[in-house]
Design goal:
The complex is a heterodimer of chains A (506) and B (484). Chain A has 506 residues and is mainly α. Chain A is built from 20 helices and two strands. In chain B, helix 11 packs parallel to helix 17 and helix 13 packs antiparallel against helix 16. The chains are: A mainly alpha (506), B mainly alpha (484).
Chain lengths: 506, 484
């Protein structure tokens, strides 16, 4: 039924899957052309709102397990490029575009304080390209198209990180590092795709899935899987491949950090999910082995080692960056369990962590704007000087720990349930034990902010333009901690869709 | 009013008090007056609920996850706990006004605001209708009491608060959360149901393992070896120690313990599987070891803290004996110990406010300067020891009967030995205060009591210990609903 709808695509509504990507793509050069900060911001913000509306419409269409197949230019797959929306990627589309729609109003004042005026229009251009890339990766049903959009988002990200140089020159080396590591990752990824093409002669994911099903013992296919996992692992900062992340997050402009932390690694996780569960099948012996003996141990190491590293950081942005690596570990752990509940845990944590880290990095950006510092010892007394920002950090921090009543708790609950359901109680204990480390690093910040007297400088509360988006996300942390029916249903649907074979079930 | 409305109001009113505290931070009298009104209203609401006598009234606020709801209900144990906590809030608040002003403490608004909020969390625990709701408020109580423990903001206070948060969070996250999720997976529900929900869903040694996760996970019950947070919390201002660390927080722990025993495992299931036998031994050890440590403590509040650790294990013991008498005795001990221990803490605070003394060895002859305070202290001490005519006697009596019921004769010996230790570490203070001459030699005869607000409160709770001796029957009738 979905296929027929696509063939008779006539109205604007039928073109939503491609508009999702095209709108930011077209808005991006406009920002460049007008080259005035205010105008560029207005265009970018309007585009992000349009993206949000489109993604919500898409999610509403597919939420009952439906699938939209959109044929680009009317060329039927597997010859043409197919955009394919199901619950899993519609959910990710909503996350990306919602975060974008919150980051843009935030960026206006934050960027004005952190980046030279002549670069403002360029910033919005890059940000829109990055949004376009991330949405494209998510929406497409074509393996090579994933690579193309991944590169669009990565290249614009390198530029965005480098814009932090106005505040700290080290942003340039951070961006350069990220460029090298990211390019290596992308190369591995495209080699994997190339192998798949060699073995099957197709690039359409659904088509790939059908053909790979007969090629389980084919060595090219196995090598392809390995290359894809390593390549995308670089992008999503799987534990030993995470070296680019702390510096990139620390030195990027605040708005960029908030956006990247909430979206880019999440999209990479989605790609891993899509390839592991839709293109390849978890029924494959070599894939189960990879997930179980490679991904799962590294996930657990990330949970512990990155959290321990976070405890010892002296810079709040870097602390949160290490915490991100640890939290990615939880998402990978859910994948490593290879059960429907585990996947649901991964997907729900993807969402919950996006809003949590988004709120935290935005609040940190507000501190940067008011004090110019991110060093933890300099946060003394800020809880009283900036009560609203401080409260947002506490709320986000509680969600990071997973205190009941916050979004993080829901993730933890589902992940622990998944581990116990499988009878893997040591894994369940590891999940809860590692969240204690989060208590340590969150409380390190809380103690300094609230229990250490402020130095005699007068620091005021951040402007509303920063506070409102920050609190939008902080409130979401509480809202989705108490009313989680919505997110759990969506994540469960998405997981069942992926786990039930995804394309193969067509 | 509907019972369900009463439940919700009893949660909302203290929460409103928090907001009112912050809004009225400019005017101390209005701020503290508003809290007093809130505490009276909260108590009245709980009393109305008790009088209505409608057990089983339940209200679901909303669904958090599919199958998991935020919901509240009325049952005897929760009602008793709510009565104790809200009733003693009134006295403690009056006491706190005297203490905080008498000591010129800083950040009084923050103090009162978080204090009210922790009462709201306590009410949530008392009325929770499932493990999930209970866990939510349990964690909220930990978080909302953290600023109270760290109140002084000195390095010592921060270190104490860190231990406090560290142990309570670790135990609740690592053990309790896993226990709750495990229960949810095997039973398909976390609702508190009389008779338990686990029978038939779990068997063999795993029952004892799950019970262990609960027993150690409920860190607020201060079962050894996870008791260190309680002495660490003594850096808090004394009203916090009095209400929260003698009543609300620790009683939330043992209350949860009883609740899990009665409504999750079910007493019959526990006794038929003998899964709680090890807990009887551990609780007994906890009772004796903590008492011995209390003997060695010279700091008055630390001594009382270890006494609390010991007394809490009485209640855990009541659950672990897995007899109906044990549960009633344990439940009654919640009320009896609360009245006795809050008196002792208030006296310790009164001594600090009036003379800035914190060590037992400094208390020689203080009874002549503070006769009323030390008389109240004696009453509290006798009630903790378990002598008539004070409330503490009845709960110990019932626990002894329960031990015989369960055939664990050694427990009776433990109870007796513990009472002797209580005499040693509590009555020695009284003797020192009244019979030894004062060290400092300053005019020993002059009476110098604490502010009158403090006095009113501690005399009231001392009298309560006597009243409870005569009214124990009412509590027993209330708790009889647990064993039918």
């Amino acid at each position: 039924m979905a296929g027929e709808a696509a063939q008779t695509a006539k109205t604007l509504v039928d073109h939503l899957p491609v508009l999702q990507v095209v709108v930011p793509m077209l808005a991006s050069p406009l920002c460049m052309l007008f080259a005035r900060a205010g105008l560029a911001w207005a265009i970018a913000f309007a585009a992000s709102l349009a993206c949000l509306a489109i993604s919500i419409a898409l999610l509403a269409t597919v939420v009952d397990g439906g699938v939209i197949s959109y044929h680009l230019g009317g060329w039927e797959p597997p010859w043409g490029i197919e955009y394919r929306i199901d619950t899993a990627n519609a959910f990710v589309l909503v996350i990306v575009s919602a975060i974008a729609a919150l980051v843009l109003p935030y960026a206006r004042q934050s960027i004005a304080a952190e980046i030279e005026a002549k670069h403002h229009a360029l910033f919005y251009t890059c940000l829109l390209l990055c949004i376009c890339g991330l949405l494209g990766v998510t929406a497409t049903g074509d393996a090579f198209n994933v690579f193309v959009f991944l590169e669009i988002s990565s290249l614009s990200t390198y530029a965005l990180v480098a814009l932090g140089a106005a505040r700290d020159k080290r942003a340039l080396t951070a961006a350069y590092n990220y460029l090298i590591m990211g390019t290596i990752g992308a190369t591995f990824f495209v080699i994997g795709i190339g192998f798949l093409y060699m073995a099957t002669g197709t690039l359409n994911m659904a088509d790939l899935a059908e053909r790979i099903a007969q090629l389980e013992s084919n060595r090219t296919v196995r090598a392809a899987f390995a290359f894809i996992v390593v390549g995308i692992g670089m992008k999503l900062a799987i534990y030993p491949l995470h070296m680019w992340l702390p510096n990139a997050y620390t030195f990027a402009p605040s708005a960029v950090t908030a956006f990247l932390a909430a979206t880019s690694t999440k999209v990479a996780i989605y790609v891993l999910l899509r390839f592991s569960f839709s293109v390849f099948s978890p029924g494959f012996e070599f894939e189960r082995f990879t997930l179980l003996y490679v991904v799962l141990p590294f996930a657990v190491m990330a949970m512990f080692l990155a959290s321990i590293a976070a405890v010892f950081q002296q810079d709040i942005k870097r602390l949160l960056a290490y915490s991100s690596i640890a939290q990615i570990g939880y998402m990978l752990l859910g994948i490593g369990l290879v059960t429907a509940t585990g996947l649901a845990g991964s997907i729900i944590h993807l969402f919950n962590h996006a809003i949590t880290k988004g709120a935290l990095f935005m609040a940190v950006g507000a501190i940067v704007m008011q004090t110019g510092h991110t060093a933890i010892p300099k946060l003394a007394g800020l809880g009283r000087a900036m009560p609203l920002t401080g409260a947002a950090i506490v709320t986000g921090g509680l969600s990071l720990i997973g205190i009941p009543g916050t979004a993080g708790f829901i993730s933890k609950w589902v992940l622990v349930s998944a581990a116990l359901e499988k009878g893997w109680w040591p894994v369940a204990l590891l999940i809860v034990a590692s969240s204690l480390l989060a208590v340590v690093y969150v409380w390190k910040i809380v103690e300094i902010m609230y229990l250490k007297p402020a130095p005699q400088t007068s620091v005021g509360e951040a402007p509303l333009g920063l506070l409102l988006p920050t609190w939008g996300l902080a409130a979401a942390c509480v809202f989705f901690g108490l009313w989680a029916d919505l997110t759990i249903d969506a994540a469960t649907d998405a997981a069942n869709g992926l786990f039930g074979g995804g394309f193969a079930a067509r | 009013m509907q019972p369900t409305t009463l439940i919700l109001l009893s949660l909302v009113v203290p929460a409103i008090a928090t907001a009112a505290n912050m809004a009225l931070s400019d005017n101390d009298n209005w701020r503290d007056g508003a809290t007093l009104v809130a505490s009276l209203v909260t108590f009245a609401l709980v009393v109305a609920l008790a009088v209505s006598g409608e057990y089983g009234a339940a209200v679901t606020v909303f669904s958090v996850m599919p199958g998991l709801e935020l919901s509240f209900h009325v049952e005897p144990l929760g009602l008793l706990f709510a009565l104790v906590a809200s009733g003693l809030w009134i006295v403690t608040h009056i006491y706190a006004i005297g203490y905080m002003r008498g000591n010129n403490e800083h950040h009084q608004t923050r103090f009162f605001a978080f204090f009210s909020f922790s009462i709201a969390a306590t009410m949530g625990i008392a009325f929770s209708a499932n493990l999930f709701t209970l866990f939510l408020f349990y964690e909220l109580l930990t978080l909302s009491t953290y600023p109270l423990v760290a109140h002084k903001e000195t390095d010592e206070a921060k270190a104490g608060a860190r231990t406090y948060l560290g142990i309570l969070m670790s135990t609740s996250i690592v053990f309790l959360l896993v226990a709750v999720i495990w229960t949810w997976i095997i039973a398909g529900t976390t609702d508190f149901t009389l008779g338990g929900i686990l029978a038939g869903n779990i068997e063999g040694p795993m029952v004892a393992v799950l019970l262990g996760l609960f027993a150690f996970g409920i860190g607020k019950a201060a079962l050894m070896p996870f008791h260190r947070w309680l002495p660490a919390a003594m850096v808090a201002p004394t009203p916090v120690s009095a209400l929260l660390h003698a009543v609300a927080v620790v009683k939330a722990g043992v209350f949860t313990m009883l609740k899990v025993g009665v409504y999750i495992f079910g007493i019959d299931f526990l006794s038929s599987t003998s899964a709680s036998d090890w807990l009887v031994w551990l609780a007994s050890a906890s009772i004796l070891i903590a008492s011995v440590i209390a003997l060695t403590k010279d700091n008055l509040k630390a001594r009382l803290a270890y006494s609390t650790v010991s007394q809490l294990s009485y209640i855990t013991l009541g659950m672990a004996l897995a007899t109906s008498m044990g549960v009633v005795g344990g439940g009654m001990h919640i009320a009896m110990h609360a009245a006795g221990k809050i008196t002792l803490f208030m006296c310790a605070g009164a001594i600090y406010v009036a003379h800035h003394k914190t060590l037992v060895s400094e208390l020689n002859g203080i009874g002549r300067k503070m006769p009323l305070t030390m008389a109240a202290f004696m009453i509290g001490a006798l009630s903790i020891i378990g002598l008539p005519p004070f409330g503490g006697m009845w709960s110990k009596w019932l626990l002894g009967l329960a031990a015989l019921d369960a055939g664990q004769v050694f427990v009776v010996a433990v109870l007796m030995l513990s009472s002797l230790l209580n005499v040693a570490y509590l009555l020695s203070i009284v003797a020192r205060a009244f019979f030894l001459p004062a060290d400092d030699g300053e005019d020993a005869g002059a009476i110098a009591e604490a502010p009158v607000a403090c006095l009113i409160a501690l005399v009231a709770t001392a009298l309560l210990s006597i009243v409870l001796f005569f009214q124990a029957g009412a509590i027993e009738r209330l708790l009889a609903g647990l064993i039918s």
